[in-house]
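Long-time lurker. I teach an intro course on protein structure, and each term I like to show students one example going from raw sequence to a predicted 3D structure in token notation. This year I'd like something fresh instead of my usual example. Would anyone be willing to generate the tokens for the chain below so I can use it in lecture? Attribution to the forum is fine with me.
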Amino acid sequence: MRIINTGGTFNKRYDPIKGELFVPNDNHAIEAILKSLVIDIPLQGVIYKDSLEMDNHDRALLGQTIMLSDEKTIIIIHGTDTMDLSAAYVSSLALDKVIVFTGAMIPFSIDPIEATANLSMAIGYAQGAKNGVYIVIQGVMGNFEHVKKNKSLGRFERGVNVL
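-- Reply from a regular --
Happy to contribute to a lecture. Here you go:
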């Protein structure tokens, strides 16, 4: 198993000088969670962006990173707003791997509970999943085509026709 960090709200921290949240170029949040879980999983950071800033080049880099990984099980930490787009792109690569996307609506640095729970669920889910691309977040899990962010309600939902 390997964790690939692309940034997103999960990783955001507050900059007291600028007075805003930013995505740092590090893996601090994930490292803290893994330390608290006493789990040793290889961790790699590749993009470090808010998912609204991600483009096709970033998704190609993510896909290449997954393809080059020797591990057959990959967890992707990703921003929630375009997680579905990245999951669809990765799915189009038809890789012989288990790929689980997760993230958080609240930064780990503000309240670590959601990010920790989401990563923990993703790790557990990935261990029993068959090859494919999944989203596991907020207690909702399944194939990426059936788990979507309901932006009007600010939560993830499972269903065929989720908006």
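Some talking points for your students: The domain at 2-158 is CATH 3.40.50.1170 (Rossmann fold). The CA atoms of residues 62 and 68 lie 10 Å apart.
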